[in-house]
Amino acid sequence: MTGTQLLERDALGTLEAIAARIRRHVVDMCAGPEGGHLGGGLSCTDVLTALYFSVLDVDPRRPDDPHRDRFLLSKGHAALALYATLAERGFLPVEELTEFGRPGSRLMGHPVRAVPGVELPTGSLGHGLALGCGFALAARHADSPARSFVLLGDGELQEGSVWEAAIAAATLRLDRLVAVVDSNGLQLTGATMDIAPMEPLAERWRSFGWSVREVDGHDPALLAEHLDAAPWEPGKPSVLLARTVKGHGLPFLAGRPASHYVTLSPRNHSRALNALRATEGMG
């Protein structure tokens, strides 16, 4: 972690407090007229918090620094969580989050380059890991210490292109590449294990030549500890399986496919905020 990151995080509070604010932003955005991908946004909030406030070498004052770490949100439908994280980190005004999904807003349903801190437009599932390979290989050729991080959904792993990229990364020994799987067990139409089972996921990744760790995906300090230590094995790309809950923090939606895309009514918006306050001590 850089000195700048330490100072900025100390000013903003603990990782848990930052994650709580980001979750509230996600809920607020899903109360807008367009709604949003609430469940997957809440399941990866702690991962994004750990990355942007404890791991990534990025600077909102210099978003195009050639030596920055790269982050790609391969599960691009969780863009609202990324926007909320970037806003809390200082890449864009927090007030702009109210424009999410509105006509003319740059805060679209999937990430776009018009938003500071977004490396590439993503959301066509299965492409992010290959792009991360490209960033990692470019950093190697530039003799740069930068790392590349890619956040994928577990349903996304059903795309064959993910495993083509996994083979390439291991073959090229891209040990500055780190993948994080938001393993919440659900996708749009139901449980991932019922649609296209991927477990045992850790063994699957190891068989492709990756160094693998598993962790509670809702413990941002523990996530940061593992991610900051990558690469875990010289010459091997790293993948962290973050075991999460879709719709985390909202008992009336958590762990349900119905949380995938939600437009919160005023009643449910208030209900959701009350639930977050109760579970996270929000004021």
Automatic annotation (TrEMBL):
CDD domains named in the record: TPP_TK
InterPro entries recorded: THDP-binding (IPR029061), Transketolase_CS (IPR049557), Transketolase_N (IPR005474)
Keyword tags: Metal-binding, Thiamine pyrophosphate, Transferase
Cofactors named for this entry: thiamine diphosphate
Any one Pfam family match given in the protein's UniProt record, by short name: Transketolase_N
The Transketolase N-terminal domain, residue ranges: 17-265
Protein name from the UniProt record: Transketolase
Organism expressing this protein natively: Streptomyces lateritius
Record lineage: Bacteria, Bacillati, Actinomycetota, Actinomycetes, Kitasatosporales
